[in-house]
Specification:
mainly beta, five-stranded mixed beta barrel, five-stranded antiparallel β-sheet, disordered N terminus
Amino acid sequence: MRPAAALALAALLAAACSRPAQVVPDTAAQQEPHRVVGRVAVVGSAPVNLRVAVRTDAGGVYVEGPLAAEVRRLSGAQVEVWGRRDGDVLRAEGYRVVSVDGAPVWQGTVERGPGGGLVLRLADGNTLALDHAPPEIRPGQKVWVQGPTHVGVQTFGIVTSP
């Protein structure tokens, strides 16, 4: 056998004997955020062991990360929180207030409306007029509100202020 042919045959045999190709898992499925719907509770013992939890019928999770302080302000509300889960900890990437005291809410950021009044900018980009809004509600705040959209704000909660 010629040396070049022997070298090619050796390379072919080495490639055939090497480890088989590994199947790479679909990382898109792994990137899907984990979602939890439940009631927010602040648990633990003050002042150093307090944690934010979202309790469900199946147990729940502890919420951590930059949004944990906002979720904490929603204690008692039913929320949907999503993010990366590691055991019983959910690193929140987003949340939505589902209801407060059993009644649905509108959630968004307060803005000054075209006529000088206040509007609530919803996550989908639409706005709702905040008729009869109390003076505590100001532009730049992230809030939830309850009440018919054509009558005015009946109850509210401020989640963040600018």
